[in-house]
């Protein structure tokens, strides 16, 4: 097991701005109780190894990829988790088309999508929280570092073209003492279906009647202006290489690439930078049983206003998902997902994601217990077996 800052984002093939990166996170190996006494000896199905296939949001992709790497080591290389960062829209599509075992999104399944799945499978689809993160306004202004202050209304007016230069009086007023140049604002947005876009535009729709009426929110919108880029990786790349750029990214993409990012004045009038405490504060709510909830524009005085859960999508009837062919795959999927919401949460904070609050862990555990395989309570059986070790 790797310890003492050796546990890294050892993500072969995963890149930000097209470059492989490795982070020393300083983590202690955890989660071994899932496999204590669980040797593959005498169990040919477990000895052979299992590959779990998932796809979706780029927002939690650094965390899911790190979890996959860690989990492979925990299982002695026997379980591999292959996750493709294709955006929430692609993840939802592939999940509904049953070409993946699980999807990931920051835009939870709609009532219509859940109803469609229930009609076709005889069971529901769960939106299981896996992490909690922030979407930060990222920018490239010569000579200006992290910490530039925005309001929601100013961000909206920059995205709609009402504010066109960085030395606009409204931005200057929010940032006394900052030397803002007369550089044009170059708007950058996602070009693919994106849960990050859903979070960003959901916030815009709450703080701006104009945006709500004319653009709205969703994984894809008709942008008033700007340059599109694919994935959080793509937006980060355009922002980093374009003087005057303003974009939006999951916080980890800004911190990994040393891209300046801003603070946002929340509904309580407090100036809040996205970080672990302010993201966690935004989620201090009464979480519904299905966890499908927006936490943007939080009323929490110490909460960052552009935060969201990220969810894993999984079928209640695992046998109804044609991507899952055997009970062994179903069992291993349950084990992995349960690990992500328990021991796997140790990987969250070093990657600028907040640990799930206990209420979210409890809701997710209840969902996993309800997973079945050909009528058998595979989820409850796996979790009970883990508890006995």
List keywords for this structure.
single chain; 389 residues; alpha/beta; D-Maltodextrin-Binding Protein, domain 2; 2 domains; eight-stranded mixed sheet; three-stranded mixed sheet; 14 helices; 35% helix; disordered N terminus
Largest sheet: 8 strands, mixed
Q: How large a portion of the residues is in β-strands, by DSSP E?
A: 15-25%
- CATH architecture label of the largest domain: 3-Layer(aba) Sandwich
SS-derived structural category: alpha/beta
Residue stretches low in confidence (pLDDT < 50, at least 5 long) are 1-47
Overview of this structure, please?
It is a single chain. With 389 residues, the chain is α/β, with parallel strands linked by helices. It folds into 2 domains: 15-133 and 310-387, D-Maltodextrin-Binding Protein, domain 2, CATH 3.40.190.10; 134-307, Periplasmic binding protein-like II (D-Maltodextrin-Binding Protein, domain 2). 35% of the residues lie in helices and 17% in strands. The chain has 14 helices and 13 strands. The chain has an 8-stranded mixed β-sheet with strand order 4-3-5-13-6-10-8-9. Strands 7-11-12 form a 3-stranded mixed β-sheet. The protein has a two-stranded antiparallel sheet with strand order 1-2. Strand 1 (15-16) and strand 2 form a beta hairpin. It is elongated, with a radius of gyration of 21 Å. Mean pLDDT is 89; it is low at 1-47.
What's the structural blueprint in terms of helices and strands?
Layout: E1 15-16, E2 19-20, H1 44-48, E3 50-56, H2 61-74, E4 79-85, H3 88-97, E5 102-105, H4 111-121, E6 125-139, E7 149-151, H5 152-160, H6 169-174, E8 186-190, H7 195-207, H8 209-214, E9 227-229, H9 231-241, E10 245-250, H10 251-256, E11 263-265, E12 271-272, H11 276-282, E13 307-315, H12 327-341, H13 358-369, H14 378-387
Parallel strand pairs: 3-4, 3-5, 7-11, 8-9, 8-10
Antiparallel strand pairs: 1-2, 5-13, 6-10, 6-13, 11-12
Helix pairs in contact: 12-13, 12-14
